[in-house]
Amino acid sequence: VFLFDLEFGCSSAHILPELSHGQSFHLALARADCVYFLGGHLLSSDSRPPRLFCLHVELLQGSPLISCESLNTGMSISSAIITRTGPTHRYIILGGYKLDSQKRLECSTVTLDEKGIHIDHLEPPTWIPDIIHSRTWFGGSAGEGSILLGVPT
């Protein structure tokens, strides 16, 4: 884990055993001193296990203190699109992949509060056939509550 302090122009590197397998294409959400890593693709096993980590960051003067906790409420997901729905810490997760060629045609809401992270199922949009039958898709947040989704033709 790399921390960058843009105010003072310095950085630090931290090795955490919980994250030693390598993880890519995950989602990251933050509130206060916690950063949540949800899902992702493990390079070592070419899989998407249902993972959820909470990274606690205390910015102490001189040296930050970092700890990582593995939580039991993760999702098997990678390359999903996430957007914040307003001024609170509430997000919508759209799509992503369950397997290399199996799209996740589902939606979820994620809420971060003082007690932690809460993930709930959300009724997905009505998918048009072009999206359902495409092998790939991509996109990103287009502002609060809006998502841009692209499908190569």
From TrEMBL:
Q: Which InterPro entries match?
A: Gal_Oxase/kelch_b-propeller, RAG2
The molecular function terms of the Gene Ontology recorded here are:
sequence-specific DNA binding
Matches recorded under PANTHER family: V D J RECOMBINATION-ACTIVATING PROTEIN 2 (PTHR10960), V(D)J RECOMBINATION-ACTIVATING PROTEIN 2 (PTHR10960:SF0)
Q: Name one GO cellular component term.
A: DNA recombinase complex
* Pfam families recorded: RAG2
Q: What is this protein called?
A: Recombination activation protein 2
Q: Which GO terms describe its biological process?
A: V(D)J recombination
